[in-house]
Structure formats: structure tokens, C-alpha cells
Amino acid sequence: MHRFTRRLLGLAFIGATLSCFITPESAEAGGYYRQRYSSWSYKPTSSYYYSRYTYHPVVSTVTTRYHYHYAVHYPSRPRYVYYYNPVRRVYWGRYDIQEGGYSMLKQEDRKEKLEEIPESAFPKPAEMPPIPESSDGEKMAKPDLTALPKHDAAPDTP
After folding, report:
1. Do 132 and 55 touch, CB atoms closer than 8 A?
2. Could you give the count of Cα atoms lying within 13 Å of 82 in the half-sphere of its Cβ?
3. H or E element in which residue 69 lies
4. Cβ atoms of 55 and 66 closer than 8 Å
5. Residue 101, exposed/middle/buried by CB under 10 A (0-12, 13-18, 19+)?
6. What is the mean pLDDT of residues 138-158?
7. Of 67, 30, 31, which is closest to residue 52 (Cα–Cα)?
8. Residues with Cβ < 8 Å from 115, sequence gap 6 or more?
9. Residues 6 or more apart in contact with residue 27 via CB below 8 angstroms
């Protein structure tokens, strides 16, 4: 075996061994986050605030590719933060700020436009759902509402 190949195999073995000792907690300390929300931004042309919810479907320190959805807050609907999937282009649920719970829409009720979703389609709020596309049961973090601007808007009546 060539000297270079042996050295390369040795380094690969050491890397694989060390990766066994990396926990999600130590990964977070190193700049890796399983899930997080960006700060809130305002889109004046559509009159809503949005935050990018970024996540890893699986715990991994190898990949740097995050997936994302948007958390959207309409001042005209001050009680809720809606979740939008930009790949499928649908709203798929909402967080009830007053109840502190999440309502996930059935597949057939998910629509591109919020106005197309009847209020009756949203089930009673419950616990946060698992991180999208995950299989380990880790729950989504609740949206960070501390930086969401306060407003006095009349609620919409769908």
C-alpha cells in the first residue's frame, strides 16, 4: 500500500472515530444548529412580517445544507404565526400565540393563498409538530415572538 494511501486511510479513521463523540449539544457550541429562526423582517407590499425557520431534518455535523420554511405574521391576524413551505408553495399550519399551540392542516387543506383556507380547516392547537422531514421525533421550536413588533390592528374576518 502506498504511503499516501495509508496516511489518508489513517486520517479518515481518526475523523470517523472523533465524529462518534460529537453530540448535538457540542455541535451547537461549534456553530451548528438543528433549527433556528431568523430575525423578523417586514414586507410592506404585502403587509406582513416573516422569519425564516431553518432546520436540519436529521442531526448531522457533516452536512451544512439546511432546509427552510417561513413563519409569517400578519398584523391583521395578530393571534397567529402561519407556516409557509416555499418549495411546495403552501401554508401548512399555524402557531396560536394566545394558546401557545400549533395547528397542522390536513394535506387537502394546504393552499398557496391563506385566503383560500377556511378557518374551520385549522384544528384545535396542540403541541408543536416534529421538525419537517425528520424521523427522530424532535419537536419544532416555537417562533421567537420577542422581536416581533407590537401592533394594534383589527383582526381579519375570513
Report:
1. yes
2. 26
3. strand 67-73
4. yes
5. middle
6. 72
7. 67
8. 158
9. 59, 61
Grid cell in block for residue 71: 413563519
Q: Which amino acid is at 24?
A: P
Q: Report the mean per-residue pLDDT for the chain.
A: 81
Query: Cell 385566503 sits at which residue?
Result: 115
Retrieve residue 21's grid coordinates: 463523540
Q: Please state the pTM of the whole predicted model.
A: 0.74
Between CA 94 and CA 118, with CA 67 as vertex, the angle to 5 degrees is: 20
Q: For 27-60, what is each residue's pLDDT tens digit?
A: 444 456 889 999 999 999 999 999 999 998 877 6
* Residue with grid cell 394558546, as numbered in its chain: 99
| CA contacts within 13 A on the Cβ side of 80 | 20
Whole-number Å distance between alpha carbons of 75 and 72: 10
